[in-house]
Amino acid sequence: MKITVEEEKCCGAGQCVLIAPEVFDQRDDDGIVILLDAAPAEDQHEQVREAAAVCPAACIHLDDNA
Amino acid sequence: MTAVRSVLVVGASAAGLTTAEALRRKGFTGTLTLLGAERELPYDRPPLSKQVLSGAWEPERAQLRSTQALAALDAEFVLGDPAVGFDADSREVTTASGRTLTADAVVIATGVTARTLPDQRGVRGTHVVRNLEDAAALRADLLSARRVVVIGDGVLGAETAATARQMGLDVTLVGPQAAPMTEQLGPLVAGHLADLHLRNGVELRGGVLLDALHTQGGAVTGLRLSDGTELEADVVVTAVGCVPATDWLGNSGLNLDNGVVCDAHCRAAPGVWAVGDVARWHHQGLGRPVRLENRTNASEQGLVVAADILGNGKPYLPVPYFWTDQFDVKLQVHGIASPVAQAEVVEGDPVDGRFVVRLEGPLGPECVLGWNMPKQARVQRADLVDYYTRPRQPVTP
């Protein structure tokens, strides 16, 4: 799995951090998403998929073939 | 329960799409149909009053998923064909074009429609902002306008006023409250929002309602407020709330009361669920029915409904959340601001333009608001989880 995020679409909700804190964080100054791990281990995949699904700005993209 | 082999989602916006995607992700291999009233592929609504209205984004950018991602969903999209009737017993949906659709499980995700004022119907220069077409029409008018009046001081009205002002227009924001968004933010933060609008040149008219629109040759020229004030306007935007899109459910047999009434699992009837803005479900943490009109709820509720359809459901117990971007401020609201809660700045400082406010109610903290502190607000949200997720008996007054 390969994750990409569109920073300019991110609204700073932090829902992704609540669901997958090992993969996502937020910048201190403006809350924009920080991708901690762009190719997380298998045991993180389910949380990452849920984070992408609930992202209210639809700015988390997953490539399962990578 | 027998296995569900087909799911029909009525409504192809954020809530409906999230439900459909979650079904597939959780292993559902049956027939999946999404029925949408609008012609467009599923798109996101929060940008309509901001990036799409300002022109920062082309409308296509608001599309929720790429064409490839939608194709991978292996669902049939029936778009541009509004549902006009439903029978909850047979789970049969009829559409405007005369189709009849049915499935083992039907998900109602038709959202809300913008309220309009009787005066504005057919009047050129008057607008609502609910769908992509509305935003495009408003943008076209704003480009040749000088003065705009926004009626309605909720989230949408305040955002629209801020965007129009940033496009260089003279903007007046009108509404019944002392400060914009007082209901959603509480008086302290709403006061800061009023200051923000004033600093940026928006004229605020609080504590008033629209009395009458003035028109000439079928186009709006201005309006009179309830306090007698006369305002000139080339464009008038009404953002006076929404009503659940349940017209088509009148003879369905479902319980309708400010939305589709659902149990704690968002079930409206056997084999029928509701999700998103249209759903009024029993929030066990709050001990009362709740209907939320916000973007995050659309997705979170979609996940819960998909799980329930597949037999792995649980009560839906969200900490409500919304955000708004106005001028240079990103505002985050976790929880629901009750009118009686006490506000306290718990981090940062309003003087620096960055702070977090906590609203304390009789049973503990109920709401956390971040003003240009999204991360810090999200961290403080942890204190609210107990309040919203611990099942409680209804409060007797």
TrEMBL record, chain A:
Record flagged with keyword Translocase: no
Residues passing through the membrane, by range: none
Keyword ATP-binding attached: no
Cofactors, names only: [3Fe-4S] cluster
Protein name per UniProt: Ferredoxin
GO molecular function: 3 iron, 4 sulfur cluster binding; electron transfer activity; iron ion binding
Record's keyword terms, sorted: 3Fe-4S, Electron transport, Iron, Iron-sulfur, Metal-binding, Transport
Pfam families (UniProt xref): Fer4_13 (PF13370)
Chain ranges of the 4Fe-4S ferredoxin-type domain: 1-29
PANTHER family found in the cross-reference section: FERREDOXIN
Species assigned in the record: Streptomyces shenzhenensis
Entry-linked SUPFAM superfamilies: 4Fe-4S ferredoxins
Function text: Ferredoxins are iron-sulfur proteins that transfer electrons in a wide variety of metabolic reactions.
Listed InterPro entries: 3Fe4S_ferredoxin, 4Fe4S_Fe-S-bd, Fe-S_cluster_ET
TrEMBL record, chain B:
The keyword Oxidoreductase belongs to this UniProt entry's keyword annotation: yes
Cofactor: FAD
Record domain FAD/NAD(P)-binding: where: 6-302
GO cellular component: cytoplasm
Residue span, Reductase C-terminal domain: 321-357
Oxidoreductase as UniProt keyword: yes
Keywords of this entry: FAD, Flavoprotein, Oxidoreductase
One Gene Ontology molecular-function label: oxidoreductase activity, acting on NAD(P)H
Record's protein name: FAD-dependent oxidoreductase
Species assigned in the record: Streptomyces shenzhenensis
